[in-house]
């Protein structure tokens, strides 16, 4: 065995595995979405812009600090990296941020017609970190999409300041963001909400 060979770090494996799994589910078609986690040293590891999330290699990951400085020379971070930064800055309890583009999340975001998507009546809601242990109701903000990421990020930051328990949000016609204390927790949130989006679309039935 070659002992001099560099071993990939655990966070690299974790992000690559998450990208592969989400893509297999159809939640990150083509190059859409982005994945990040907070490294112990402070910066985040995030996917590079335009990377195919189902086929990530260690080269597709890079480090960016929470001031937005690129720490991996020659690499361009995801266009949405400022949203990840805002979330990490907002709470020390956020250790990973995941952004998906599933058909269900996007269809629901376009159909709901309001500023919040209210989910209620699902026992699975009790599995969301920080949620009411009996399920109850949970409202996810739905933001209008905009090419102005700093503006969207400022709105997200303000809403989370007022409501620190928000576990994710939709961007209308675009996709879904969620997070967790670590990558495993954030992954669980993606799975829970993607399942609930499917339930919710079934409950609402076909368009008239
Ligand atoms: C609203 S932020 C833009 C990006 O997050 C984009 O939507 C996306 O999903 C992937 O972009 P990319 O820059 O290739 O990582
Ligand atoms: Zn996106």
TrEMBL record:
<keyword id="KW-0456">Lyase</keyword>
<feature type="binding site">
    <location>
        <position position="101"/>
    </location>
    <ligand>
        <name>Zn(2+)</name>
    </ligand>
</feature>
<dbReference type="GO" id="GO:0046570">
    <property type="term" value="F:methylthioribulose 1-phosphate dehydratase activity"/>
</dbReference>
<dbReference type="GO" id="GO:0008270">
    <property type="term" value="F:zinc ion binding"/>
</dbReference>
<dbReference type="GO" id="GO:0019509">
    <property type="term" value="P:L-methionine salvage from methylthioadenosine"/>
</dbReference>
<keyword id="KW-0479">Metal-binding</keyword>
<dbReference type="InterPro" id="IPR017714">
    <property type="entry name" value="MethylthioRu-1-P_deHdtase_MtnB"/>
</dbReference>
<dbReference type="InterPro" id="IPR050197">
    <property type="entry name" value="Aldolase_class_II_sugar_metab"/>
</dbReference>
<dbReference type="Pfam" id="PF00596">
    <property type="entry name" value="Aldolase_II"/>
</dbReference>
<comment type="function">
    <text>Catalyzes the dehydration of methylthioribulose-1-phosphate (MTRu-1-P) into 2,3-diketo-5-methylthiopentyl-1-phosphate (DK-MTP-1-P).</text>
</comment>
<dbReference type="GO" id="GO:0005829">
    <property type="term" value="C:cytosol"/>
</dbReference>
<dbReference type="InterPro" id="IPR001303">
    <property type="entry name" value="Aldolase_II/adducin_N"/>
</dbReference>
<keyword id="KW-0028">Amino-acid biosynthesis</keyword>
<dbReference type="GO" id="GO:0019323">
    <property type="term" value="P:pentose catabolic process"/>
</dbReference>
<comment type="pathway">
    <text>Amino-acid biosynthesis; L-methionine biosynthesis via salvage pathway; L-methionine from S-methyl-5-thio-alpha-D-ribose 1-phosphate: step 2/6.</text>
</comment>
<protein>
    <recommendedName>
        <fullName>Methylthioribulose-1-phosphate dehydratase</fullName>
        <ecNumber>4.2.1.109</ecNumber>
    </recommendedName>
</protein>
<dbReference type="InterPro" id="IPR036409">
    <property type="entry name" value="Aldolase_II/adducin_N_sf"/>
</dbReference>
<feature type="binding site">
    <location>
        <position position="99"/>
    </location>
    <ligand>
        <name>Zn(2+)</name>
    </ligand>
</feature>
<dbReference type="GO" id="GO:0016832">
    <property type="term" value="F:aldehyde-lyase activity"/>
</dbReference>
<feature type="domain" description="Class II aldolase/adducin N-terminal">
    <location>
        <begin position="13"/>
        <end position="201"/>
    </location>
</feature>
<keyword id="KW-0486">Methionine biosynthesis</keyword>
<keyword id="KW-0862">Zinc</keyword>
<comment type="similarity">
    <text>Belongs to the aldolase class II family. MtnB subfamily.</text>
</comment>
């Amino acid at each position: 065995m070659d002992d001099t060979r560099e071993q990939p770090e655990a966070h690299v494996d974790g992000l690559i595995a998450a990208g592969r799994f989400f893509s297999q589910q159809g939640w990150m078609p083509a190059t859409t979405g982005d994945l990040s986690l907070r490294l112990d040293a402070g910066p985040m590891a995030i996917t590079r812009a335009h990377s195919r999330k189902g086929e990530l290699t260690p080269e597709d990951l890079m480090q960016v600090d929470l001031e937005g400085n690129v720490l991996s020379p020659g690499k361009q971070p995801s266009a949405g990296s400022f949203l990840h930064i805002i979330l990490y800055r907002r709470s020390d309890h956020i250790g990973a941020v995941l952004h998906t583009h599933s058909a269900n999340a996007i269809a629901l975001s376009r159909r709901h017609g309001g500023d919040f998507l209210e989910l209620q009546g699902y026992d699975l809601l009790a599995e969301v970190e920080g949620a009411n242990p009996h399920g109850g109701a949970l409202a996810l903000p739905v933001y209008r999409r905009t090419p102005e990421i700093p503006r969207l990020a400022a709105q997200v930051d303000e809403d989370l300041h007022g409501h620190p328990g928000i576990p994710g949000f939709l961007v209308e016609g675009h996709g879904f963001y969620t997070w967790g204390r670590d990558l495993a927790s954030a992954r669980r949130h993606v799975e829970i909400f993607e399942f609930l989006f499917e339930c919710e679309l079934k409950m609402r039935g076909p368009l008239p």
